[in-house]
Specification:
heterodimer; A: 14 helices; B: about 270 residues; four-stranded antiparallel beta sheet; globular
């Protein structure tokens, strides 16, 4: 780890801590630090401890999972536009989770939806790697992502179409929009282990991503096993992204925006980008969630909707910049 | 040169025995046996599609031959762990991509990947990177973004990347392609310097430019349709007869005061 890398990580860690504190205070009810220590007598104490602490923890975990997954997918594909959302991994996770809602299994046991989300994400990355793995070209990867997105959204649409009742359809729609609102410690418990495990797997691939800077032949010549890298990438993104999507619904563009913004600060080295992207993803989701809560509207704007609204234009600007560079 | 049959397992060198590779139904290599010795720069030449790149990828262990085997300084190449193989052979692929706009020092540091443990680059790694930058006269460019380098600077940076791994063998596929004559000579000089730096070092290159092959190689191997048709010192291997057979051209080398001069006279 270089000195510059450590400085970036330290700065982002401080940012996450500050935003986490902000996330505990901000909302329809302002809960400053003094309210936290007031004990159960203060109604704000319950808001902080029962609602905002799980919400904040989820923001950190989910944002970290999405940022790290994006950095890992970009490192593997050598494509700055790769992201769990763009490549259809989030959509596949959502498809898995929606199926449990459609089948009414979501309520049977809390872990069912998380498991289905992870299974969907795992199937998504596996299909992605199988479709585009050996050729590894930027175009094949994006096209494979388009296919996955199409298949997954068709599946979700079919589930909505055939929903047994309006209530089930509403539940699916609400969930699809992606939000951290009204989550409990149970959700934190459900996603924490798979996100941390998946994150650890992805962090172990840093050197392989560095080597892939020299292309697949270059990486193999440096002794990196691409087969092993692919399998671990699928497992890591499947666990982290699948668990994240399963508890919050689809929150797109975190994995696209964060690594892209942080890449210049770590000298562009994909392995050095992993930890900063996890922290940056956590910071971005926390910040967006605070803004969403402070929006003066009758119904809370869903986090997934807000991120998509921000991400679309960002994607456009990136594409124009890349086009200019290639021209 | 000795026939491969006489080569015992303990011999040093990069030794290919009866390599055969078939892609689909098309035979690419048909029983290639070659022994590369330390201390030498060997150039592999031949017409397009002769199997040069396939031969190199088999020599560096990136392609398992359908038949035959490669021995690296006495060890069976296929049995070596990928990291160990990567520590011993530095391979520079044809027109290598650099996916991200990393600086030169980071690029060269990638050559240390087969050596580094979980702790990241150690002092020894940094020393090796600094030496590689120095050997290729790239020290002044250490902080420069790779995408801003000229073709010649980029070629030197990529050679430095291989040198940083401190391999015993340096294998490069068309390392001089796309360089102007001056930079071709500079790059060729780097390969010669590597071969001369340590008695255990050896260099294998594929080249398109026959004049460069005659100038910078100690030995030239001519490959055609997956078979070796000539092998020896440049003057012995690149005879008019061999050039006619390999390329279908009338061409010859004239001995000159500054080394052999290549004359291309026309199509046969």
């Amino acid at each position: 780890m270089t000195r510059r890398g450590l400085a970036v990580i330290a700065a982002l860690a401080i940012l996450v801590v500050v935003l986490a504190a902000g996330s505990l205070m901000a909302g329809k009810v302002w809960a400053p630090f003094s309210a936290w220590t007031a004990g159960a007598a203060d109604p704000r104490w319950a808001i902080v401890f029962q609602l905002r602490i799980p919400r904040t923890l989820l923001g950190v975990l989910v944002g970290g999972a999405l940022g790290l997954s994006g950095a890992a997918l970009q490192g593997y594909t050598r494509n700055p536009l790769a992201d769990p959302g763009v490549l259809g991994v989030s959509a596949m996770a959502a498809f898995g989770a929606v199926m449990t809602l459609y089948l009414g299994l979501g309520a049977s046991a809390p872990w069912v939806m998380a498991a289905a989300g992870m299974a969907g994400a795992l199937a998504g990355v596996a299909a992605l790697v199988a479709l585009a793995g050996t050729s590894g070209g930027m175009v094949t990867f994006v096209l494979a992502g388009v296919i996955l997105n199409t298949v997954a959204s068709a599946g979700v649409a079919l589930a909505l179409n055939l929903a047994p009742n309006a209530w089930a359809a509403q539940e699916i729609i609400d969930w699809l929009m992606g939000s951290l609102a009204d989550r409990s410690f149970l959700d934190v418990e459900l996603c924490a282990a798979p996100i941390l495990a998946g994150g650890a797997v992805l962090l172990s691939l840093g050197r392989g991503f560095d080597a892939l800077t020299l292309g697949e032949t270059g990486a193999r010549a440096l002794g990196v096993s691409l087969g092993r890298t692919r399998i671990l990438l699928a497992v890591g993104v499947g666990l982290a992204c699948g668990a994240a999507v399963a508890v919050t619904g689809v929150v797109s563009f975190v994995g696209l925006v964060v690594p892209h913004l942080l890449r210049p600060f770590v000298g562009q080295r994909p392995g050095a980008l992993l930890i900063p992207s996890a922290l940056g993803g956590a910071a971005l989701v926390l910040a967006a969630d605070i803004l969403v809560r402070l929006t003066p509207s009758a119904a809370e704007v869903k986090l997934g909707v807000a991120m998509a609204a921000l991400g679309g234009p960002f994607f456009l600007v990136m594409l124009i910049a890349i086009r200019r560079r290639l021209a | 040169m000795s026939a491969p049959a006489e080569i015992g397992p303990a011999d040093t060198g990069l030794i290919a025995r009866d390599l055969a590779v078939t892609l689909g139904r098309r035979p690419i290599l048909r029983g290639v046996s070659l022994a590369f010795r330390p201390g030498e720069v060997t150039a592999i030449v031949g017409p397009n599609g002769a199997g040069k790149s396939t031969l190199l990828s088999a020599l560096v262990g990136l392609r398992r031959p359908d038949r035959g085997a490669v021995r690296l300084d006495g060890d069976d190449l296929a049995a070596l762990a990928p990291r160990e193989r990567a520590r011993r052979i530095g391979f520079l692929p044809q027109s290598p991509e650099v996916a991200w706009a990393v600086d030169v020092e980071t690029l060269v540091g990638l050559g240390r990947i087969p050596h580094v443990g979980a702790a990241g680059l150690t002092a020894a790694d940094h020393t090796a990177v600094a030496r590689a930058l120095d050997a290729t006269a790239m020290t002044a460019f250490a902080r420069r973004d790779v995408t801003t380098l000229s073709g010649g600077e980029r070629a030197r940076a990529l050679i430095a990347r291989v040198l940083a791994g401190e391999p015993r063998w340096l294998v490069a596929d068309e390392p001089l392609a796309g360089l102007d004559p001056g930079h071709q000579l500079d790059a060729a000089e780097l390969f010669r310097a590597f071969a001369a730096a340590d008695p255990a070092h050896g260099v294998v290159l594929t080249l398109h430019d026959l004049a460069m092959a005659a100038r910078c190689a100690d030995r030239v191997v001519v490959l055609k349709d997956g078979q070796v048709i000539a092998d020896g010192a440049p003057a012995e291997a690149l005879t008019p007869e061999v050039l006619a057979q390999a390329y279908g051209v009338r061409a010859r080398f004239h001995p000159g005061p500054d080394g052999p001069a290549f004359e291309l006279m026309g199509r046969l």
